[in-house]
């Protein structure tokens, strides 16, 4: 077998990707399905194209799902039965982590030892599973948080529910256990260090991307005709999961102010997506808000759209608004720009990276209605400026592709495998039992308390290893 240890860049042959709470095959834009689903699927497809097979484990949410589905060449999705298929709230999922983990471990046990070279967990729930799999299989764990409770809670929308403390505790555990952490932006890396005590040298900043072959500029009139939108209106679109955190109400309020100031304005707000998270408690809240503000006839709602329709939404819009209270990156912002549409975004989190302020769109500090109404008018009232921004938006989005993201992940995997091997070579694996893999040849038994002759660059590994061992006692 061509093992990772024989490859100079330690590229894994096969990665177990964990996405417990949401399937990469689910339609994003409603419920728990959003950017993370797109990220997991697109990076898996790209990794497979580069010769690294991917098996994605996710919790089955329907009884008619087959145990395994092929998502593309070299990418399998394993639908793990753990708990009821439907109706399980995300906050109740921790109760199902044990059966989920058991099924993941059983799946691996059906193969020869060394089947997976690495585990990559997405979101903290998967991290909890990944750390056990890592110990059992003797492979490194790479973890991507996607969102962090401490960051979300620090920027809550008015009246929104905070993330529970149990999540923050779980995140801290996973961040301490993971061999490497992948952050979307330098800002997120800083949050991992400052709020969660992560070691900076274990973090890789890998920006997400967009499918640049799909999201490309196209004919606006054709797109509007296909979607049934009027040709002579100015369309501002919101695309994503409808919940207070994503703040589509900020756009609706700003639009109402623009329309109240100038009732002849040809503004139309297009909301694409379905209720999600705390938005599920009041699924009609946005419809009611538009009615209360007297602009119900200027707001169009569309259910979540698949990518081949979503590109038409981006092309049809003059502007895409991303008013979120928090956004670890904001894939919609990149997809819109790639399709030639400037973005008006809140100046939070990864949106500062996703949008080039004044060039490919505008970043608005805060969420005050007058500021958002002012920014809307500033952009919509100058079509020439919008046209210039459209060109720059395409240029800016070209920096973000899933190919680039997959290359970054492979570099992170390589670092994880290298460090893991060094740690094990220097310190042995006396405390860990279980399967074996290609790295095992480098391992010798470690007697607790034994003094080991470590190279200087292994000193950190040793401290880290000890800390982990101590943490488990
Ligand atoms: N999306 C979609 N159809 C929809 C709405 C959204 O496919 O109707 C996808 C969109 O293409 C994007 C993702 O959902 O890739 C949303 O990602 P983003 O990072 O903007 O937000 P998140 O859901 O992660 O908060």
List the helices and strands and how they pair.
Layout: E1 14-18, H1 35-49, E2 53-59, E3 68-72, E4 75-80, H2 97-109, E5 118-122, H3 123-137, E6 141-144, H4 149-154, H5 165-177, E7 180-183, H6 186-196, E8 203-205, H7 220-227, E9 234-239, H8 248-261, E10 267-272, H9 285-292, E11 299-302, H10 307-316, E12 319-322, H11 331-338, E13 343-346, H12 351-354, E14 361-364, H13 369-380, H14 383-397, H15 402-427, H16 459-472
Parallel strand pairs: 1-2, 1-5, 2-4, 5-6, 6-7, 7-8, 9-10, 9-12, 10-11, 12-13, 13-14
Antiparallel strand pairs: 3-4
Residues 28-29, 34-36, 38, 239-241, 272-273, 304-305, 307, 310, 329-332, 335 line the site of uridine-5'-diphosphate.
Mean pLDDT: 89
What is the overall number of helices? 16
Largest sheet entry: 8 strands, mixed
Radius of gyration over C-alpha positions, nearest whole angstrom = 23 Å
Give the strand tally: 14
What small ligands are held by the chains? uridine-5'-diphosphate
Give the CA-based shape. Answer: globular
Adjacency order of strands in the biggest sheet: 3-4-2-1-5-6-7-8
Distance between the termini: 36 Å
Strand content: 5-15%
Structural class: alpha/beta
SSE order, one letter for each helix or strand: EHEEEHEHEHHEHEHEHEHEHEHEHEHHHH
Instruction: Please state the oligomeric state of the protein chains shown.
Output: single chain
How helical, in percent, are the residues?
40-55%
- The low-confidence runs, each spanning 5 or more residues with pLDDT under 50, are 1-7, 429-463, 465-473
